[in-house]
Amino acid sequence: MRSHNPDKEPYIILNFDKVWRFVPMNRPGKEMIKWFLFNLFPFFTKKLAVYQNWKTARIFAENNTEIWSKKFWKRIIYHHYNLNFYQKNIGPNDKKNIEKIAIVLHVFYLDVFLEIIDLLKNSDFQDFKLFITTPEFLKEEISTILKAGSFQHSIFIIDNRGRDVLPFLKILQYVFDEGYELILKIHTKRSNHLKKRDLWKDDLFNKIIGKDCIGKVIHTFNQHQEIGMIGPSGHILPMALYYGGNAQKVLSLSLEMGLKKEQLQNLHFTAGTMFYARKEALIPVLNLGLTDQDFEPENNQLDGTLAHAMERVFASGLIASGLILADTNSNPGKITCRIDLNHAFSL
Fold first, then answer.
1. Over pLDDT 90: what percentage of the chain?
2. Which of 67, 102, 223, 231 could form an SS bridge with 180, CB 3.0 to 4.6 Å?
């Protein structure tokens, strides 16, 4: 198994999330508390794992958004900001049109799978193939459901180790080998530790596979060749605020991709690990060569696993590809990417 923390000194594990549940503040406010606490009492806090992650996560912030800057306070007031793009607006004739899409779907909860199937049946775009990864015990039921429909599909039996991430990486080359250049990664999300788990799931699904979503996203990719990934609007977050217990691992894997620390400033990722991505944006992550041995066995972990880190590392892969991130409010005429500082569906 790779070692993602170069420091050999053991740190004290203190789960701040248990405290945050009882603090009536938004995420920027909570991070401000950490900033004061860790700066005023470094002698007492530097032994904490959360301090080390906080220290590393500052690599992912913009240099001009420190606590004394106007931009910092403006973002605290409005709780979001928009990325600005120089839009090339390259037309579809400059590159071969994307006309089909691969939907890579990891299934662990059958009831959520049925919800996804219903949404896909009602989609405005039907030229896709389902590549389904699932544990052995669900194979027969999934096969029965798919036989009742008309979807092209392949089923891969893969254990739930690495949650939805490792199964995705395991079959990604098969998807590329079938000629797909655009991938939708989705899974049967259920965050059982959150009160808003169904609201989060429903919002993600509506924004990424709702009735008119898939066709619009494909047209947007065709019109803007500089886009490498499109994530659901309202779920694109700054790594500097939403690092959890993952900053060290994200940094280590990003450097392994060949990125430099300064390239990781202002890193944004799609919370929930559901997104559309071009093949080119995924190759840097695939080339990490991660295996079963790199991922922890499933034990209902809430944070800090390689799967949680990989949720953020896909954004590093996008940087390595030289392409940009957009959200589902984008359309063929305009690229948008709103960054939310206070995610409504998590702590």
1. 55
2. 102
CATH number for the domain that contains residue 231: 3.90.550
Backbone angles phi, psi at 128, to 5 degrees: -140, 165
pTM over 0.70: yes
Domains contained in the chain, number = 1
Q: 267 with 87: CB under 8 angstroms?
A: no
Which residue in the block uniquely carries the two structure tokens 């549940």? 21
Q: Quick one: pLDDT at residue 148?
A: 83
Torsion over CA: 40, 61, 18, 24 (sign): positive
Task: Report CA 258 to chain centroid distance, whole Å.
Answer: 20
What is the C-alpha to C-alpha distance for residues 270 and 268, in angstroms, rounded to an integer?
7
Domain assignment of residue 335, yes or no: yes
Q: Which residue, 209, 249, 238, is CA-closest to 53? A: 249
Look at residue 17 and tell me if it is in a domain: no
Burial class (CB in 10 A: 0-12, 13-18, 19+), 184: buried
Q: Report the mean per-residue pLDDT for the chain.
A: 86
pLDDT at 7 over 80: no
Q: Is residue 45 part of a domain?
A: no
Query: Judging by beta carbons within 10 Å of its beta carbon (0-12, 13-18, 19+), is residue 224 exposed, middle or buried?
Result: buried
